[in-house]
Amino acid sequence: MKVKEVADLVGISVRTLHHYDEIGLLKPEQTSEAGYRLYSDHNLEMLQQILFFKELGFPLKKIKEIINRPCFDREEALKFQRKTLVEKRAHIDKMISTIDKTIEHMKGSIEMTNKEKFEGFDFSHNPYEQEARERWGDEAVDKSNAKLASMTKEEQKVMQEEMNALYRSLAALRHTSPESDEAQAAIKKWYTVLNSNFGIHYSLEAFKGLGQMYVDDERFTKSIDQFGVGLAKFMRDAMAYYADNNK
């Protein structure tokens, strides 16, 4: 199949396929005398793998590394992807249920406790671990995982509740100035929590960079803004101000 045919079949752009070829992620089986990229059934199978990993949030660099390993097993990868997508679906279903209940609560049809309003939010795992490894290296992530693994379930629950409480308190301040004393006191607590619970130390500059990522990476933005629209930007500005004024 020619590149345009593959693009139309899959629903992605020709430019995306060209990019995959350029970075060595998916090279076409052959190129015709006229210079057309020609894709085989095997290429399509690998493209399916790439798109499944991409749907799960894996960066292209990591996908390339995985599928080019000599021990790569396509069936094993599919089983992993299915398991992960089922877990993702269950998480999304729970979030949708919380939204439906919240709408009914707003109409006065039902009553919701504060705890029920946040059912479905789960910060006990890190969905961005692969990207974290790419950005900061294995050592930092392994230290963080080791720290979490050493905690009991009760300790992890307490930590999660502490972080959720901080998100909520910051969300309540998001329409005020991020430079205010109240906002800075809350963001100082956030800095302390990050450095106390994950086995690594964020320098002030790294803390500022993390805040910028809350806005640059839409996955972080969506996750944080579930506590209040605009919270990610507010935290970024508050974290930057805190870092610049505490050097």
Automatic annotation (TrEMBL):
Keywords: Activator, DNA-binding, Transcription, Transcription regulation. PANTHER family: HTH-TYPE TRANSCRIPTIONAL ACTIVATOR MTA, REDOX-CYCLING DRUG-SENSING TRANSCRIPTIONAL ACTIVATOR SOXR. The lineage of its organism: Bacteria, Bacillati, Bacillota, Bacilli, Bacillales. It comes from the Bacteria. This is MerR family transcriptional regulator. Pfam families: MerR_1, TipAS. Coiled coil: none annotated. InterPro entries: DNA-bd_dom_put_sf (IPR009061), MerR-type_HTH_dom (IPR000551), MerR_fam (IPR047057), TipA-like_antibiotic-bd (IPR036244), TipAS_dom (IPR012925). Residues 1-69 form the HTH merR-type domain. One of its GO terms (molecular function) is DNA binding.
